[in-house]
Amino acid sequence: xxxxxxxxxxxxxxxxxxxxxxxxxxxxxxxxxxxxxxxxxxxxxxxxxxxxxxxxxxxxxxxxxxxxxxxxxxxxxxxxxxxxxxxxxxxxxxxxxxxxxxxxxxxxxxxxxxxxxxxxxxxxxxxxxxxxxxxxxxxxxxxxxxxxxxxxxxxxxxxxxxxxxxxxxxxxxxxxxxxxxxxxxxxxxxxxxxxxxxxxxxxxxxxxxxxxxxxxxxxxxxxxxxxxxxxxxxxxxxxxxxxxxxxxxxxxxxxxxxxxxxxxxxxxxxxxxxxxxxx
Length: 279
Known about the structure:
Strand 2 and strand 3 form a beta hairpin. The protein has a single domain, classed as Beta Barrel (Porin). It is mainly β. The chain has three helices and 13 strands, in the order H-H-E-E-E-E-E-E-E-E-E-E-E-E-H-E. 13% of the residues lie in helices and 51% in strands. The N terminus is likely disordered.
C-alpha cells in the first residue's frame, strides 16, 4: 500500500517538475513572459541620470544629405616638390605638382613639372588626364601631355595606370605617342618611410625610355634618363612640410651622347631644399 501511494505521488509531481526544468523554455515556439511596462521597471540607481529628449537627438541625429558621398565633387592639389636645386655648376628651381577634381571614381587629373638652371627653363611640361578608378587602389588615366621645353613645343597622347602597390609603393606608369610615330614611356615609384610620426624619408626613382631618337629635343632611342633621390621632411602640419634631400640624375645611351655634344652634363648629383604642401 505504501509503495502504491508513493508511485501515485511521483506521477502527479512529474509534469510540474518537467515544466520547471524544460531545457527549451524561452526558445521559439514557447510562450515567453512579456517585459513589464516602464512604470513597473526597477528604478535606475541615483548616479545614472535619466535619458532626456536632448540625449536622444544627439544619439540619433538627422543624416539627411549625407547618405551618398560618391556624387559630391572634391579636389586635391599637391606640391610634392617645390624646391631649389644646387650642384654640378647648375643652380635653379624645380617644381612637381599634381592634383584632381571630381568624384570618387571619375576624376580630372593634372600634372605639371619644370626645372630651371642659371636663370633659364630647362624642362617644362603639363598633363591633363581623365582618370577612372578600376579597383580600390588603382586608376587608369588617359589624356594629353604638352611639352614646352626643351626644344620646340610638342604634344603627346598619354595613357597609363597609377595607384598604390602592395607595401605602400606609389606607382605611376605612363605611355605616350607623339607626332611622326614617336613613343615614350615613363615609370615612377616612390615610398614614404615614417621615421617618426612627423619625420618622413621619401625615396623616389624615375626612368624614361624613348622609341625613336629626336635630337631637336635632346633625347635618343632606348633608355634615356634615370632619376634617383631621397628627401627628408618634417611635417609641422600634415599639409606643410619643409625638407632637404639629394638627387642623382643620369643620362644614358644616345641621350647622353646628345647632352655631351651640347656641352651638358651626362649626370650629376644635386642637393635640394624645399617645401611640400597640399590642400
